Amino acid sequence: MSITKTAVIGGGAAGMMAGIFAAYHGDAVTIFEKNKKIGRKLYITGKGRCNLTNYCDVNTVIANIPTNGRFLYSALNAFSPADTIAFFTSKGLPLKTERGNRVFPASDRAGDVVDTLLKTARKAGCDIVNKTVSDLIIDDGKACGVIVDGRKEFFDRIILASGGKSYPMTGSTGDGYRFAAKAGHTIAPLKPSLVPLETVEAIHPDMDRLLLKNVAVTVYDTLKKNKKVYADFGEMQFMPYGTAGAVILSASSHLREMANGRYKLEIDLKPALTEEKLNARLLRELSAHHRESYEYVLHSLLPRQMIGMFVSMSAIDPDKKCSEITREERQSVIRLLKHFTLTIKQFRPIEEAIVTSGGVSVKEIDPKTMQSKLIKGLYFAGEVIDVDGYTGGFNLQAAFSTGVLAGGSG
Q1: Please, what's the largest Cα pairwise distance for the chain?
Q2: Angle subtended at Cα 63 by Cα 60 and Cα 65, rounded to the nearest 5 degrees
Q3: Average pLDDT score over residue span 314-324
């Protein structure tokens, strides 16, 4: 009985899982990774902690993957979040579940996830080669090899798991799209997802890199009568170009049709206080410091770095005495504290995105095997496919599930 030779292009989450399960299937596996180390992108996910899945059921995963989530139904049923958790724990990696059912390694070290995948792949018999694949060999409608260092190497099947186009420093330079397009596949337009947002308003220089840990963020679509499209609570950060941070990245994936000025970002700087309680607090502060300036009293309500921009947006003279602040001015301060609003200009470049939206059309991939419908022996896994989700471990789960299905379908 002949042994199937399988080439996996890409040593990231999807590629490593594809290689492992192809080896479990009995294939002779070669994983081509152009970086010196595998899993470069895994090292930076979850702020270096690696949110590797979400502790939820398959339908919840699909609901959190707005781009072609239903395409993943077979893959997720073949390898669910519970299977991901069982896989890593069985390999000796303790896990923990945090807010929002996010699953992390107990050590908080993304490197432990990478090490687990590497050890498992080697134990399964995968040959990991640090070389760059420059092209596919396709003959008579069948993928039959790759070109590496100008030399042809032949395989029975090829799994394309080379990632997207975001974070090119990790090796995700869009090679997979070029390979797939040359093979005749349709590539859905590439867009950034889970990416910082630029704002129309200039961010005050004092606010550069200011991190706010407990704020509520809401995004409204002005073209749809200010329909609420996203709301969450957590961390955000001001940048010279606009905003970044966890809740901003999550918000970006809900902005499917970006246009300058279309979306309004509203920040509640005091989410723990109602407007009534905030009014009472402001009255106390103004009374206690009645001889001081309006700008002075803001130090008790805001981070020092925000005061310059806040004063400007409130249109109140910063030197005005607290005793002279009118009821209308006090109400405008409260509104601004609860509704600090910025206008979204555009996404930051795709190179700064965590995930690439777009990719190989799912209409041209068999969802039950991840094999190309156009080229026999060519399979896809991970971010190269036109599938992307929200933050919370859903994108990595999609990578693991498609990798397992592609690897075990030979």
Answers
A1: 91
A2: 115
A3: 95
Cα(227)–Cα(282) distance, integer angstroms = 31
Q: In this structure, which amino acid lies at residue 358? A: G
Residue 168 pLDDT class (50, 70, 90 cuts): low
- Which two three-digit tokens encode residue 107? 């050590």
Asked whether the beta carbons of 138 and 372 are under 8 A apart, the reply is no
Q: Token pair of 326, please?
A: 């009118």
User: What is the pLDDT averaged over residues 235-253?
Assistant: 94
Residues paired with 143 in a beta bridge: 138
What are residue 317's phi and psi, to 5 degrees?
-55, 120
pLDDT recorded at residue 208: 96
Segment 356-410, tens digit of pLDDT: 899 999 999 999 999 999 999 999 999 999 999 988 999 999 999 999 999 998 6
- Alpha-carbon distance 390 to 193, whole Å? 9
Question: Where residue 162 falls among pLDDT bands split at 50, 70, 90?
Answer: very high
Residue ranges of domains in the chain, CATH in brackets = 5-191+356-407 (3.50.50.60), 196-347 (1.10.8.100)
C-alpha 394: how far from its chain's center? 9
Q: Structure pTM?
A: 0.88
